[in-house]
Amino acid sequence: MSGSQITAITELDRSHYKTKVYSGGHFIYADEPEDIGGTDEGMPPGALLLASLGSCTAITIRMYADRKNFNLDAIKIDLAICKEEEMNMETRITRKIDLVGDLTDDQRQRLMVIADKCPIHKILSNPIKIETS
Question: What is the pLDDT of residue 132?
């Protein structure tokens, strides 16, 4: 993530849950599945949260591996978030990282440590205060 402030704008009209999301000149849709009234034309918000963590983790690992000239061919990250009814005292996200390439055990261990250095991981691991106006 760059040092500049990250912003996003979301817009929802009378479309049932299909939400337009804008950030930095880019555009995506968020939505809900049809079985709860959405159009299923975009990822649900929880999946977007996981996508943020997964992509940030992969990018952070890739940057480090490239800088160190590690022979890392690919990164696959599987993520899941606990069910909403389980989010009473703690929200649990599971993250499984698969590193593909000719890496030593030390390199693999180092990359797993680096995974926790991604900015989104840091954001989600600290208390979050949301100020609404």
Answer: 96
Sequence length of the chain is 133
Residue 56 in tokens: 């940030």
With a cut of 70, say whether residue 2 has pLDDT above it.
Answer: no
3-class secondary-structure state, position 62: helix
Residues near 31 by beta carbon (within 8 Å), at least 6 away in sequence: 17, 18, 19, 38, 39, 40, 41, 42, 43, 44
Lowest mean pLDDT among 9-13, 45-49, 106-110: 9-13
- Average of per-residue pLDDT across 112-118: 97
Token digits for 59?
Answer: 């990018």
Domain hosting residue 17, numbered range: 1-42
In a shared domain, residues 57 and 10: no
